[in-house]
Amino acid sequence: QDVEPGGVDRLLGDGEAAAAQVLGQDAAAGALGRVEVASGIALSVLIEDLKNPRERTGAIWALNDFGDRAKDAVPALAEILSCDLPSWHRVEIARLIGRVGPGAKQVVPVLVKSLNDRDESVRVAVAVALLQVEPESEARIQPALLKMAKDRIVKERQRPSSVNGRASGPG
Prior knowledge:
two-stranded antiparallel ribbon; 9 helices
């Protein structure tokens, strides 16, 4: 089935489309990430949605549900990582790239550049992502930032549970 990019609601049936109107596009995009049957189509739609500021938030959250299967989204994620987005967007983008792991090596230069982000939480998330994507890049990370990143990795591993790749609880 061919689906035009940028329209999460176009992938939903009548009942789901009505729910999307009530819940909003972001909730619909989040639900879309859990639809295994249409994951290939959904992933291509979400990649296009990353380029649309109105759809971006929902696409970022929905991509969390794809885990390392979001590899095809890595170039689009890297492209918007350095944009003037809210810091939480940039943190989530770095986390998504990190979850892909070594399959995201093509964006290491973008991650290295983003180690200089103005926001510390973004720098830490980028450092964690860099360690997940290319562990041998450790020398590129400033010592204090490296320590924070490694502490974050340990903390995330110690969490009792996670939901769809997102850590549960604050932190």
